[in-house]
Fold this protein.
Amino acid sequence: MAQLVLFHSVYGLRPAVHAAAERLRAAGHQVTVPDLFDGKLFDTVEEGMAHTDEVGKDELLRRAVGAVAPLLTAGTGLVYAGFSFGASVAQNLALADEQARGLLLLHGTSDIRDDAATSLPVQLHVAEPDPFESEDWLNAWYLRMRRAGADVEVHRYRGAGHLFTDPELPDYDEQAAERTWLVALDFLAELDG
């Protein structure tokens, strides 16, 4: 059983995030789902991105750190996970946490500092092509993560939309979503092994 923290996308803490958390709990994992937007939900990516800009990335990261702090106990490493914007938050926190056990990225990544060093197992699920994660960006991201020491798996879903795991969005792709969850649950099970 892994202890996960699962961060939402720029749409906010939508029902799909809660459903994902329930799916992970049904597989035996403990899951915490922080709300970085204080209950605000958005109908479009543009509205959500405007909100992140208004609040500021530093403040959102501070909120994320505050949400994770009570979960950090000696000897119990967290698995960080997130959707799109939430994946970038998860990546930043995981790379700063020496006790982190894994990183599950759904639909997004973040930049990596040149001095980053980690042996984390990392799994990324991303659409191909993805409007927010270009081929060049993903290749550079992969190489930088490997250079940092991470054990990286990338799973690409041809023809799926950006947030293809959210059944309430036009991007939803049932087949890609189910495959994502099967692979992700295997990844999490391996972290327990």
Notes: The two ends are 9 Å apart (CA to CA).
